[in-house]
Write a structure and sequence with these properties.
mainly alpha; 39% helix
Length: 51
């Protein structure tokens, strides 16, 4: 594809870096995750209004 064709596309082309696979399944922020889970237990998820 040419640059012009890429610029005219409505959907972006995203390239994912394969080196990020080493983080798959790992918890990088355990304290923040614990706090977020605690808040979700108390408050819950917001209701989604369906139109």
């Amino acid at each position: 594809m040419t640059i012009e064709e890429l610029n005219k596309r409505k959907t972006p082309i995203v390239v994912i870096d394969k080196s990020l696979e080493k983080y798959k399944g790992k918890n990088l922020f355990p304290e923040k995750l614990a706090k977020a889970n605690e808040v979700l237990k108390k408050i819950g998820l917001p209701k989604i209004a369906i139109k």
